[in-house]
């Protein structure tokens, strides 16, 4: 018999992978670099993502997922990997 917890974990990882992929594209677009040049573990400030762009990314996260994103989320979670975790937690709390 299949373990329902294992299935949920796979779905969660898939959701996180999709979120990471979307964020990579979004950041690449904002900083005008090829997507493959953006590493999810590197601080976004290393790519020149300034406060204006950070607020824009936060607004796009809000629009896409229908959650409230505190502007400090971008500073408290300075990498795409950290943002994936933070947004995933927000989405889980909304369910």
TrEMBL record:
<dbReference type="InterPro" id="IPR020806">
    <property type="entry name" value="PKS_PP-bd"/>
</dbReference>
<dbReference type="InterPro" id="IPR036736">
    <property type="entry name" value="ACP-like_sf"/>
</dbReference>
<keyword id="KW-0596">Phosphopantetheine</keyword>
<feature type="domain" description="Carrier">
    <location>
        <begin position="17"/>
        <end position="91"/>
    </location>
</feature>
<dbReference type="GO" id="GO:0017000">
    <property type="term" value="P:antibiotic biosynthetic process"/>
</dbReference>
<protein>
    <submittedName>
        <fullName>Acyl carrier protein</fullName>
    </submittedName>
</protein>
<dbReference type="GO" id="GO:0031177">
    <property type="term" value="F:phosphopantetheine binding"/>
</dbReference>
<dbReference type="Pfam" id="PF00550">
    <property type="entry name" value="PP-binding"/>
</dbReference>
<dbReference type="InterPro" id="IPR009081">
    <property type="entry name" value="PP-bd_ACP"/>
</dbReference>
<keyword id="KW-0597">Phosphoprotein</keyword>
